Amino acid sequence: MRNKIFFLLIFIFFLSIFLPKEILAAEKVEIYFFWGQGCPHCAKEKPFLEELKQKYPQLEIKEFEVYYSEENQKLFQKVAQAYNTQPEGVPMTFIGKDFIVGFGSEKTTGKEIENLIQKCLQAYCPSPTEILAAGGIDKCQTTKEEKCISLFGKEIKISSQSSLLFLGIILGLAEGINPCMLSVLLFLLTYILAIGSKERAVKVGLVYVLSVFIVFSLFLLGLLKIMSLVAFISKLKIVIAIFAFIVSLILIKEFFAYGKWISLEIPESTKPTIEKLVKKGTIPSAILLAFLSSLVELPCTVGIPLIYTTILATKSKILHIPYIMWFAFFVIFPLLIIIAAVALAFTQVEKIEKWRLNFRKYMRLVAGLILLILAIALFKGWM
User: Residue 6 contacts by C-beta under 8 Å, 6 or more apart in sequence?
Assistant: First the structure.
């Protein structure tokens, strides 16, 4: 048990490093608010900003009093210079690539501020912190799908597209190492190798994997189509987050007590049908096997694809199909590795199956922890 807990903590640490944070924080909007003690216009804007913070949980307001703080005065000068302007008095509010001087009323200046916030929620805006770190707006030109960071004095641009691709790799591989999916392929290869040639086993195996790729792609497209018809996507995200949270706990439970209590496995009632298709060992049976096994494996596998399609559904400015195919490719990537290993005689199917049985609880843990983090991020509105 001590070794399991140690492995769990190590994995959480590495996952927190490599998970693409630019996706999880995509909707955060940062405001720099410079004000002065005793300034009447500042006094009117402060409570208004607090009301906006209640209305928009993604809002992060950083306040800097400049009348009595020399440090904040210097920061005011730096920020204004980064925005190609001068400190024009207080209050002065910086949002995204825009700034507003003064504050009249909630219906005038307040409306301008809220419009800028909504604009940044709908399409990514660089924060004042990022613009300052990059050395100014001119040195870090950003678009709606691009984010800039400064690393060792070098300007680096990260797009939401590249983040989605990276996330597709992580989630696709986490989905692909699912014990349910691996077991069907290994069963298929073992049987065909026992009665036929290696070439036939590889050929039928590749047909099975290609069919799985098609099924996953169609499944994700169907989910996206359903989500596009739902007007209340924000409420749907909460439902999906709760569902994913429950599934993640079941998967993590498998690490400590595999197969006990509630377990996500292929239903026993479908195993005889799957076995019959495997024993036919033909290309048509491999195609049917891929469709049937993908269907009955949904309890094992639906959590991660559901989260990924939910993230895609919130990105209305991109073409979804390439990201779906990218995700589906990494789902089948572990299966392709197994077929390649068998074809090139690197290992035997029996050894792979033994490895699967020994490490299936770790596979479930990986998928469960990733799903847990994404469920929390979805629930908290971080993506």
Answer: none
Residue 132 pLDDT > 80, yes or no? yes
Q: Which two tokens stand for residue 325?
A: 């195919």
Q: β-pairing, 29-35 with 59-65?
A: parallel
Which residues, at least 6 apart from 304, have a Cβ–Cβ distance to it below 8 Å?
171, 174, 175, 367, 370, 371
Residue 36 is predicted with a pLDDT of 95
Q: According to DSSP H, which parts of the chain are helical?
A: 2-18, 21-24, 40-55, 70-82, 109-122, 128-134, 160-176, 179-195, 198-229, 233-256, 271-280, 283-296, 298-301, 303-313, 320-343, 349-379
The CA dihedral of 196, 199, 201, 202, to the nearest 10 degrees, is 180
CA 180 to chain centre: 23
The number of beta carbons lying within 10 Å of the beta carbon of residue 326 is: 16
Cβ pair 173, 327 in contact under 8 A: no
| SS3 of 201-248 | HHHHHHHHHHHHHHHHHHHHHHHHHHHHHCCCHHHHHHHHHHHHHHHH
Strands 146-151 and 154-159: antiparallel
Structural domains of the chain, with CATH: 17-151 (3.40.30.10), 163-379 (no CATH)
291's tokens: 């469709």
Predicted model pTM: 0.54
Measure the CA–CA gap between 175 and 74, rounded to whole angstroms. Answer: 50
152 pLDDT band (50/70/90 cuts)?
Answer: very low
DSSP string, 299-338: HHHSHHHHHHHHHHHT-TTS-HHHHHHHHHHHHHHHHHHH
**According to the model, what pLDDT value does residue 18 have?**
46
Q: Residue 38 pLDDT > 90, yes or no?
A: yes
pLDDT for 155:
44
Which amino acid, one-letter code, is at 22? Answer: E
Which pLDDT value is given to residue 307?
A: 78
Q: 119, 29 in Cβ contact below 8 A?
A: no
